[in-house]
Amino acid sequence: MSAHTIPNPTTSPAPSPAARFGRTIPGMALLFGVGLLGKVFEHTTTVLHAHHPAWPLPHIEYVLWAIILGLVISNTFGVARIFQPGVATYELWLKLGIVLIGARFLMQDLFHIGGRTLGLVAIELVLSLTVMTLLGRIFKLPPKLTSLLSIGSSVCGVTAIMATQGAIDSSEEDTSTAMAAILTLGAIALFTFPAIGHALHMSQQSYGIWAGLAVDNTAEATVTGAIYGDAAGRFAVLAKTARSSFLGFVVLGYAVYWAGQGKAAVVENKALFLWQKFPKFVLGFIAISVLATAGFFTHGQLTSLSNLSRWAFLPAFAGVGLRTNLKDLVGQGWRPLVVGILGEIFIALVTLGLVYWSFNYGVSQ
Amino acid sequence: MATAPNQLPTESQVSTPHAASRLSINVDLIAVTIALALAALIRFNLIPAIPF
User: Fold this and answer.
1) Do B50 and A307 touch (CB under 8 A)?
2) Which residues contact A232 (CB under 8 A, 6 or more apart)?
3) Which residues of B touch A324 (CB under 8 A)?
4) Domain assignment present for A315
5) Could you list the residue range(s) of the whole structural domain that residue A199 is in?
C-alpha cells in the first residue's frame, strides 16, 4: 500500500463544545455533591453537639469534611472514568473563587498587607530557590528535575511546573516526579499546618499569610488556610496570589539559563513570554478588588460576592480530596520526596519566622 | 515513565506544552469572565442576595 493511501488516523471529528461540556456534568455533580455533603456533616455534628453536649463529637469544618470525603472516595472506590472530566474542573472553581474573593479586599488593604506580603514573597522565593537547588545537587537529582522542584516549591506548585515544562524542555518523567513530590507535600501540609497554627495560637491573618507563603499548590494553600478559618483562607489566597504573580519572572529566568546551556529553546520575545506565563486570574482578582474599593457594590452585594466565592470554593475543596491518590503519591522515588520534604521544612520554618516578625508576632489582625 | 501523580487528566497530559499553556489560559479567562458576569448581575440586582 502506498503512503498516499494510508488512512489518516486523525480524521475522527473532535467533540463539539456542547459534547465536551456534557462530559463534565457527572464529575461536576460529584464535586458539588461531596462539597454539599461536607456542609451537611458540619451542620449535623453542630446540631448533635447542641442537643447532646456530652457526646464526644469533633467540630470539623465543611472544608475538612469535603476533603476527607473526597480522599475516602478517591482511595477506596476510586474516581470512575465518567467522573474524571468533571472532577478536573476543580481548577476552574478554585480560580473563580479566588477572583470573587477580591471583593473582600479593598485596595488599601492590598497595598498595606499585600505590600508587606510581596516583600516576604521575594525573600521566600530567593531562599527556596537557593535551598532547593543546593539540596538537588547534594542528593544528585537530575538538573532539570531540580529546576522543576525549585520552581514548584518557590512559586505555585503544579501550575509553575507545567508552565516551566515547555520553557526548559524537561522530560515527562521529571515533570511527573516533580508534580508528585509537590502534591505529596501539599497533602501533608493540609493536616500539619492547622495543627501547628493552633499550637502556636496564631491569628487568622498571620496563619493565612504563612499558609499562602509556605504551601506550594494554589488549591492546597487555599484549603490549608480555609481549614483554620474563613479569614485565614482569604489571607492565604492573598499571599498565594502575590506568589503566583512572580511566576513569569522565575520561569523566564530558568528558560534563559537552560537556553544558555544549549538545552532549551531560546526565548525570542521576553515581554510576550512574561505575559503568556502571567496567571490571568490575578488580574480578575485585582479588578474585583478595584470595583469594591470604588464603591461599585453595596455592603449586601459584597456579602453576596463573598458567599459566591465560598460556593465556588466548595467543589474546589472536594476536588483536592478527589484527585489525591495516596497510593500513587507514595509510589514515587524517595530522593525527590526527601529533597522536597527537607526544602519544605526549611521554607515553612523561615516563612513562619518572617510572618511572626513582620505581623506583630502573629497576633495582629 | 514515572507513575502519574494523580489519577485525573492533568494539563501535563496535553500533547504539547503550547496546548497545556493554552488550556491554563482558557481556565483563567473563563474564571475571570464568569466572575465579572456574576459581579455585574449582583451589582444590578438581577440575582437575589446569595446566602451560604
Assistant:
1) yes
2) A197, A204, A205, A207, A208, A211, A225, A226
3) 6
4) no
5) 105-309+326-362
Q: Is the sign of the CA dihedral A326, A332, A334, A335 positive or negative?
A: negative
The answer as to whether A34 is a domain residue is: no
Contacts of A74 in chain B (CB under 8 A): 7
- Do residues A197 and A352 make contact, with C-beta atoms less than 8 angstroms apart? no
Contact B3 A331 (CB under 8 A): yes
Enter the ipTM: 0.77
Measured in angstroms, the CA of A356 and the nearest CA of chain B are apart by 32
Between CA A67 and CA B44 the distance in angstroms is 35
* Across A98-124, average pLDDT: 84
Map residue A181 onto helix, strand or coil: helix
Residue A106: is its pLDDT beyond 60? yes
| Cβ-defined contact of A305 to B29 (cutoff 8 Å) | no
User: Is residue A37 situated within a structural domain?
Assistant: no
CB contact under 8 A, B5 and A180: yes
Give the containing element (helix H, strand E) for A144.
Answer: helix A143-154
Single out the residue of A230, A261, A94 nearest to residue B30, CA to CA. A94
Query: Is B7–A96 a contact, with Cβ atoms under 8 angstroms apart?
Result: no
Grid cell for residue A112: 498595606
Rounded Cα distance, B7 and B22, in Å: 22
Q: Is B15 on the interface with A (CB under 8 A)?
A: no
Structurally, chain A folds into a number of domains equal to 1
Region A211-235 average pLDDT? 91
* Position A52 in a domain: no
In percent, the amount of chain A with pLDDT more than 90 equals 44
Chain B hits for A158, Cβ within 8 Å: 10
Mean pLDDT value across residues A253-275:
86
* Rounded Cα distance, A155 and A168, in Å: 16
Q: State the cell numbers at A229.
A: 478559618
CB-closest option in A88, A287, A331 to B8: A88
Q: Kindly give the interhelix angle for A218-228 and A172-199, rounded to the nearest 10 degrees.
A: 10
Q: CA nearest A94: which of B23, B30, B48?
A: B30
